[in-house]
Amino acid sequence: MERQGELRAPGRSQARSVGALLLAAAGLVVLSLVLPHPSGGNTAAQIVIAAAMCIVGLLCWALAPRIPTATTHLILATTAALTGVLIYESGVAAGQYGSIFVWAMLIGAYYFPRKVALAHLLWLLGVYAVTLVAVERTAGYSPLTRWVFTAVSLSVVTVLTNAVVARRARADLRARHFFDLSRDMLCTANMDGYFVELSSAWEQSFGYSDDELRSAPFIDFVHPDDRERTEAETAELFEGSGTIGFENRYLAKDGSLRWLRWSATLASGEALIYARATDVTELKRVESEREDLLVEVEALARSDSLTGLPNRRALDEQLPHEMARARRGDSPLCLAILDIDHFKAYNDAHGHLAGDVLLQKCAIAWDSELRGEDGIARFGGEEFVVLLPDCLPEQAAMILERLRVATPNEQTCSAGLACWDFGESIEDLLGRADAALYRAKGEGRDRMVY
To answer: Which one is the CATH code of 312-449: 1.10.8.50, 3.30.70.270, 3.40.1700.10, 1.10.40.30?
Structure first.
């Protein structure tokens, strides 16, 4: 497996994936600047970096066949460094650019061998460590805490992705050996749909004897859900069209299912179909595992690692949908921002670990008090956003009072409530709720202001 990276994907795919990463990163920068974001950052520098990422990404996509693997490694490493600069120029390590690190490690773990992927991981973590030391704010956490959480998350992503892809690479290598040894299932079939000749691999794979396989139409061995597709493909084959890459499931004698990938052609002079079937069952299983893993990683990117609630990214995706639904149904939509009172003092008195526990308890307590259609997300630090669809201000105020009463550890919280006017932007709605929260704090905290 020394050449594992070469088995996974050609250099063209590597370069295009890195190009796509840069374009997505540039888009994320634009999105983070358009949506509400922490003040104090260098917007001009972020725009310049995003423009550079966009240009290099387009070049990677256009020139992918000409970009060598070494250059791809360099671009990927530079992307990690630029992400660190982005975090620094934003002025706060709040996680809005953390997705770029995840995407970069997915690419590294997918395309490159374990040692190379590990080198990219170490480089990325080193960049992040320098960034956390240099950045002005770390959004309520110590630099060490943020670095440790990031290191654990990215290490898990790298190890799991690399392991799944390595298993797929080994399956591909086994398939290559089988092909070299003529171990694929070779056969001929007549125009009546019966096998005429079969290689010994058929009996080894399916458990049927040669006579059993030739005694019935081959469609009888196909899974019932795939028979209609198989009959359509066979009809085209009989008309002279070749078959390449067609996949269906065959039933083995023991009742198990095997995925086969077909290449076939019609020998018109003999009225016979010459076909080769490759068993890709293991490959299908690995692909399914990889898809499940990617779904899980994507879910993690939309969840707050401490509280388990949706994070800012998930809120940014959900809020436009809620606004659209409210507009269609002409129903009220309220939004509130909750802030734990004197949270910094609590951290100073009890320690950051106790502060983390308080955040977790608040998330559980508040979420349990909401209606089924409501939603709560961690906005950042000790602030949470509550979405209250189809809810009048008076009802929203009652719900928020329940949340304030449910605040654990004898702590209090302040809340700012705003109701959408069907015309204002997301930024304006959040701004009004934030202004109401600021008034609640100014009036002595432990209250809700609408």
So the answer is: 3.30.70.270
- For residue 252, CA distances in Å to 197, 221, 445 come to 18, 8, 70
Q: What angle do CA 319, 320, 322 make, to 5 degrees?
A: 65
Tell me whether residue 401 is one of the annotated catalytic residues: no
pLDDT at 176: 46
Residue 363 predicted with pLDDT over 90: yes
Same fold, 182-283 and 312-449: no
> How do residues 132-169 score in pLDDT, each as one tens digit?
888 877 777 788 888 888 888 888 888 888 888 878 77
Amino acid identity, residue 76? L
Distance linking the first and last C-alpha atoms of the chain: 63
Exactly one of 89, 233, 382, 383 is catalytic; name it.
Answer: 382
- Residue spans of the domains in the chain: they are 4-177, 182-283, 312-449
How confident is the prediction for the chain on average, in pLDDT?
85
The C-alpha atoms of residue 178 and residue 182 are separated, in whole angstroms, by 6
Helix (H, G, I), strand (E, B) or coil at 234: helix
Give me the percent of the chain exceeding a pLDDT of 70.
93
CA-closest candidate to residue 273, choices 241, 315, 308, 227? 241
Q: Which residues of 258-275 are buried (b: 16+ CB within 10 A; e: fewer)?
A: bbbbbebbbeeeeebbeb
Assess whether pLDDT exceeds 90 at residue 414: yes
Strand-pair partners of 375: 387
What pairs with residue 100 in β-bridges? Answer: none
Give the CATH superfamily of 182-283: PAS domain (3.30.450.20)
Grade residue 350 by pLDDT with cuts at 50, 70 and 90: very high
Q: Which helix (H) or strand (E) holds 207?
A: none
Worst-scoring range by mean pLDDT, 64-78, 342-356, 431-445? 64-78
